[in-house]
Amino acid sequence: MKKNKQNTGSKLNNLNTFRTIILLLSLFFTACSAHDSAGWENKISVITTIFPPYDFVRTITDGADIQLRMLLKPGEESHSYEPAPQDIIAIQRSDVFIYVGGESDVWVRRILNSFDPKGKKIISLLDCVEPVEEEIVEGMIDSETEDDAVHDDASLDTHVWTSPRNAKLIAKQIAETLCEADPDRAPLYRENTAAFLNELDELDAEFKSIVDGAARRTLIFADRFPFRYFTDAYGLAYFAAFPGCSTDTEPSAAAVIFLVDKARAEKIPLILFTEFSNRRMAGVISEETGSGMEMFHSAHNISRDEMSSGATYLGIMRHNAAVLRKALW
User: Fold this and answer.
1) pLDDT tens digits, residue range 190-226?
2) Angle made by CA atoms 177, 300, 197, in degrees to the nearest 5
3) Contact 300, 275 (CB under 8 A)
4) Which of 80, 152, 227, 279 has minimal Cβ neighbours within 10 Å of its Cβ?
5) Strands 121-124 and 237-243: what pairing?
6) Among 92-101, 133-142, 305-314, whose mean pLDDT is lowest?
7) For 142, left (φ over 0), alpha (ψ -120 to 50), or beta?
8) Kindly report the CA angle at 217 between 135 and 281, in degrees rounded to 5?
9) What CA–CA distance (Å, rounded) separates 29 from 295?
10) Bridge partners of residue 46, in order along the sequence
11) Model pTM?
């Protein structure tokens, strides 16, 4: 995967400051209990870094009074997130902490190594599934100049929740962990989990039915591509401008031409883009090919409006099912 050297350098330059914050917070917590704030008694506290596990916990614990918080604020760019001091405090105070893992969460390992996690339940989403490497497909990178370097620097694709089948594995692990952390409410959690898993099975069946009856098996994303696990699950091919964790936002002219040619050759009816995209590239390809354009949501994060309107992982994926039908049929 192509690295953003400037971004990496900035993070390294801030490492000493980060370590200082960790030390100060660790000293602070030697004098504080894990739950000394009013309102936290008899409640488990759960912290997640991003939206999918936040929503899974919210669904599994529906009807229980718990403390639940997502560190990534609605509308924020997940790949450039860095924890504030209050975020580090929240992690240290939590009973259950859920993060993704991989390159984008190096900061998590530094935090977890800064204090004794004894008694805390910690889940990495990458540990819940069989991860695969992020891949570079034809058209993403100028193969004459950068393709070999990118392949030598492959890393794990962290967008594991985009497949409903993986979502089931993640939900099961979260449910078991919550039952261990809060045994008094375990029967409720197991009941909610069973219902959630049934809905994920229905979602999986819907995606499979759409693909089985489709006229084509290729998707074109004029954007990043965080859907490797999704396309692998349903036997789909794809072309995209960037890999899923790319920090690039402006494609080369060669990439635009390549995707326009592919869309014409494959008679693609719908050009896809992801949430928070500037949509410019999708607009250009749509105009050049006469194809429509629509969002395919990765659920990595949601907007403030989506959060206030009660967006859920299941709702987002059902929206994707409707879009997938239009893109393949």
Assistant:
1) 999 999 999 999 999 999 999 999 999 999 999 989 9
2) 45
3) yes
4) 152
5) unpaired
6) 133-142
7) beta
8) 60
9) 44
10) 68, 96
11) 0.84
